[in-house]
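Re: your question from the hallway

Yes, I did run it. Sequences:
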Amino acid sequence: MAATFFGEVVKAPCRAGTEDEEEEEDRRETPEDREVRRQLMRKSREVRLLRRQTKTSLEVSLLEKYSCSKFIIAIGNNAVAFLSSFVMNSGIWEEVGCAKLWNEWCRTTDAVSLSPTEAFCVFYHLKSNPSVFLCQCSCYVAEDQQYQWLEKVFGSCPKKNMQVTILTSRHITDYKTSESTCSLPSPFLRALKTQNFKDPVCCSLLEQPNIVHDLPAAVLSYCQVWRIPAILYLCYTDIMKLDPITVEAFKPVLSSRSLKGLVKNIPQSTEMLKKLMVTNEIQSNIYT
Amino acid sequence: MASRYDRAITVFSPDGHLFQVEYAQEAVKKGSTAVGIRGTNIVVLGVEKKSVAKLQDERTVRKICALDDHVCMAFAGLTADARVVINRARVECQSHKLTVEDPVTVEYITRFIATLKQKYTQSNGRRPFGISALIVGFDDDGIPRLYQTDPSGTYHAWKANAIGRSAKTVREFLEKNYTEDAMANDNEAIKLAIRALLEVVQSGGKNIELAIIRRNQPLKMFSAKEIELQVTEIEKEKEEAEKKKSKKT
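Structure:
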């Protein structure tokens, strides 16, 4: 036990292990613990991929069922807003399925009947070119669910003749640099690619230590292992909520080979983005 | 690791950081943008208005506050912290007037606010104020002033500055477009503030609030109509500039 500067008493970590008496006390479950455990058991952490029309689960992985030449994945609200405004409005995209999952970060309490309008993973393909796929993922996929997600989407033996582009954003404090975050020109774009990706990159590569996290990292690792050309465009921003300036920071990606043919009307896209902002504004009085 | 040194405000990290103060500066970035401009005969404060909920009374959501007849300030960051600082500053302004029979100078009240903020970075059990402030006004000598304070308790005089969300973008715009000659014209100073805000405000003039103080005149808040007029003028000028450019090419 140690007393801190403020007089609070904290347990000092000890590698010799805790005393037996204290261990027994901790092991005794209160009724509350049992209830929490029961609730957690009810909520399955399974990732299910559902077909659009019938809402039944897909028997095989998404990319085993459909052939894919281009796969664009947006993870996080800013990346999703970018694809919605700039890519999805210039072409007819058909929903082919969605991924349903639950974890502690989900805002809804009911794991059984999540509606598709709530934030999570929806998959689309372009009607005029059905081998072009798009994924809008605005939910958090927990570490233990990432492998399941990859299996259900890519399958255990993916075809190599496709190119994957991932878009996501992170808080600028994740960017490893010796400079103060105040002097960084946020938002800004960085890229990380797999060995097989040979196309030109639309921004500078992520400098060492080039560490990325969560689902984007899982997808990139998967593509590297299976030798699929893939690139992750990561936007570092100081605003984590849906923000038009962060969304517009993704614009250089529009000139990349994978997105070039898909974007037609940029002024209309900016209008669409404005509308998205208005509908998504959350009221908070803490900051003015 | 930051986590061991960021719990207590009074603890320095081995490389000299006061993490709580730096985190307070992050809180400032969560507030909407405020811009301040010092002209030759005018000082201007422009802010991005926060969108108000339908049932909320707009008058209670103010980013620009008068501290005295000749001094006003705009803040960015935690609303509640700002209220406390503004109240203390207002009391100090009156106390000063009663004691020495002179209104405060802009520098005095800025120093008061900065000292207050600094005290909270050195106190046991208290966290820093999560606001930055832009303080503008005219002193008795008729010279316009603009000061900026931040959570660490520092204050500096500026010709033009911005705080809050996207402050960097606005500051870069001001660096490119601020000229002493143009600032001799009051209208140009007002237009510069609005143009700087339009760089980062999404829905145009509707979400901008503007206040000016002219020499020997009280604080004037612009009405929505007046701001719209300025915005229309700015858009006209932009169009004309673009037409000229395309004619040249």
